[in-house]
Amino acid sequence: MVEDMKVTPWDVKGNIDYDRLIKEFGTERLDSKLLKRIEKHTGSLHTFLRRGIFFSHRDMNWILDEYEKGNKFFLYTGRSPSGDVHIGHLVPWIFTKWLQDKFNVDLWFQFPDEEKFLFKDELTFKDTEHYLHENMLDVIALGFNPKKTKFLIDTRHAGLMYKPACEVAKKITFSTVKSSFGFDDSFNIGQIFYTAMQSVPAFLPSVLAKKNIPCLIPYAIDQDPHFRITRDVLPKMGYYKPAAIHSVFLPPLTGSGGKMSSSIKTSAIYTTDSPKVVKDKVMKYAFSGGRSTLEEHRRLGGNPDVDVPYQWLRFFEDDDVKLKQIYDDYKSGKMLTGEIKQILIDKLNAFLEKHQERRLAAKDKIDEFILKV
Ligand code: TRP
Q1: Is 56 in the pocket of ligand 1 (CB under 6 A)?
Q2: Which contiguous run of DSSP H or E holds residue 19?
Q3: pLDDT digits (tens, 9 = 90+) for 29-85
Q4: 273-360, CATH topology level
Q5: 223 CA → ligand 1 middle, Å
Q6: Which has fewest Cβ within 10 Å: 23, 88, 234, 288?
Q7: Does the beta carbon of 114 lie inside 6 Å of ligand 1?
Q8: Ligand 1 geometric centre to CA of 71 (Å)
């Protein structure tokens, strides 16, 4: 039996019902009308938009209204350094890079290096320092424009961020935090304050520019409770509500609901995995929609709708025609489980080979990205 769905910034499990999340979180579906409107500006639609991987939003129409009036937005997203980056983490960032290129806008990328320190008992600041460095390499490797991208690191930019964070914090009650995140009295006071820090980059560029600039935040839907609070508070301080665009989660390799997670090593492919490790993990752990015998598979066909290799190809195979062929062949039984797994392995390894090269080259570029104050 699959557990009940749970989606919070710190815990995602169960069978995720995205329609239900749209209702419960009060967001809007990215419908075909809005996709057309985006396409008018971008010329084509990113794979993640065509396939509903980005599926929900808040105030995207407002962002485009302002953009069409010549009032450009900036992008904001982030990563809390707490472990190695896996390919699930890359999904919102790959899309953010596409938005940066298509709209030619600035990106503020937050590394809240205190977040997971506060939330995970065993994590030290020495650990977060290490992961901060490693994680920055992954972000840079995706090809963000250094002239238009600013890394904001909470403990290093604390002097800049603390006052704005306090202004936000002053407008959030303990009871709001309790009900938004399910905290009780046993949570530490750093955890209670944290959402104020995650709100800051949504208006810090406006503070620095001394004028209001629209903000668009791409993120996986589990971060939404933070930004519901941010959207409540910022207008009370005289700033715009940030807009948002939401992605689904990359399913774990083992296919058992929830999202890809670093705490279950066999459920994730890391950006530094070697071709052999990728191959072994996919062959051994990928949840398969195939039949139990070859004869049965040929006769009855596989089930691509639950097959993790197929589900991952929806994220990583850009060619719609190829993807459809794979779907049809797997469903009819013409394509076997070993074959679809091999297609995924080749796809991932081609991507990771390039990523790992760029990651190495990123070592000399970190300084270019960190915001100078
Ligand atoms: N809380 C996020 C994490 O756990 C990090 C983060 C900070 C973030 N600011 C963000 C994510 C903005 C998305 C958008 O990794």
Answers
A1: no
A2: helix 18-25
A3: 999 999 999 999 999 999 999 999 999 999 999 999 999 999 999 999 999 999 999
A4: Tyrosyl-Transfer RNA Synthetase (1.10.240)
A5: 7
A6: 23
A7: no
A8: 25
